[in-house]
């Protein structure tokens, strides 16, 4: 979740001032934990310019006032959607899914999880759906060899835009290039006619993934209930204080013996936590 270049802004009548950039940056940080560095000013200028044109508001100052006084919170959602870019892919950082299928799930089954207790997995920054659908393929494949195993996957993101795409489950064919052919055949439908060049996640897989909007900075409604949490390539955009808060909340939300997976470019080694490291970016709650 990070601002990327959109090319030059089409706004000719104004530029975002340093003072207003700081105000927007503070607001985004307060609401999402995302820290916008000063070098992101021009990118924010371009992104917010699009929103000004969409709303008919003529200045960044007026738009800021509009956002903070909008009691519905809808414009804040639009603001967050416009400043966040979600990069993901199927089977990204595949070692995590290998650990899930070869180590985590077999251990759970041995403990009786999946029968005595439904296994609950959470993709906490699900973006456009590739991560939770990959989780679903891996778990469903494992469950097919262990009759009676029950599980559920929660998928959340702060962006309503990417959640809408995830719920549709429709992707360009090049987006599924890393999906193993047996999985591609079993879990995807190939588009025809006007949908040629696209694939759609089959209903049987979509049914096991529940998508909802959730802000990681909010209070977690779960405590010692989740068995597996994926939070990958998100904390790199948070400052140390926010990272610490989030890791503590993840620990509280996991069941004993539950697992946390973070991105390959991330580390929690410098934070205070009670996790046991089981792989480079995989941790267990004892």
Automatic annotation (TrEMBL):
Domain CheR-type methyltransferase span(s) in chain numbering: 9-286
Biological-process GO terms, alphabetical: methylation
Domain of life: Bacteria
Transmembrane segments: none
Keyword terms of this UniProt record: Methyltransferase, S-adenosyl-L-methionine, Transferase
This protein's record includes keyword Electron transport: no
Broad EC category: transferase
A family per Pfam: CheR_N
Protein name: protein-glutamate O-methyltransferase
């Amino acid at each position: 979740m990070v601002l990327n270049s959109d090319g030059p802004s089409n706004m000719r009548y104004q530029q975002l001032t340093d003072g207003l950039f700081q105000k927007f940056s503070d607001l985004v940080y307060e609401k999402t934990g995302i820290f916008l560095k000063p070098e992101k000013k021009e990118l924010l200028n371009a992104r917010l310019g699009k929103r000004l044109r969409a709303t008919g508001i003529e200045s960044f100052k007026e738009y800021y006032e509009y956002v903070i006084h909008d009691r519905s919170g809808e414009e804040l959602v639009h603001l967050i959607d416009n400043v966040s870019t979600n990069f993901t892919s199927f089977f990204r950082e595949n070692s995590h899914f290998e650990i899930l299928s070869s180590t985590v799930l077999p251990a759970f089954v041995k403990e009786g999880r999946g029968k005595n207790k439904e296994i609950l997995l959470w993709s906490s920054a699900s973006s456009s759906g590739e991560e939770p659908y990959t989780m679903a393929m891996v778990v469903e494949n494992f469950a097919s060899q262990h009759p009676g195993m029950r599980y559920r996957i929660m998928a959340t993101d702060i962006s309503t835009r990417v959640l809408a795409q995830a719920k549709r489950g429709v992707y360009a064919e090049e987006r599924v290039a890393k999906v193993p052919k047996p999985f591609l055949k079993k879990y995807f439908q190939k588009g025809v006619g006007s949908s040629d060049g696209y694939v759609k996640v089959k209903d049987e897989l979509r049914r096991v993934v529940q998508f909802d909007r959730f802000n990681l900075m909010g209070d977690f409604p779960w405590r010692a209930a989740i068995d597996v949490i994926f939070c990958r390539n998100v904390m790199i955009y948070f400052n140390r204080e926010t990272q610490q808060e989030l890791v503590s909340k993840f620990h509280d939300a996991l069941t004993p013996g539950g697992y946390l997976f973070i991105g390959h470019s991330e580390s929690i080694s410098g934070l205070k936590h009670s996790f046991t490291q089981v792989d480079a970016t995989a941790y267990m709650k004892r």
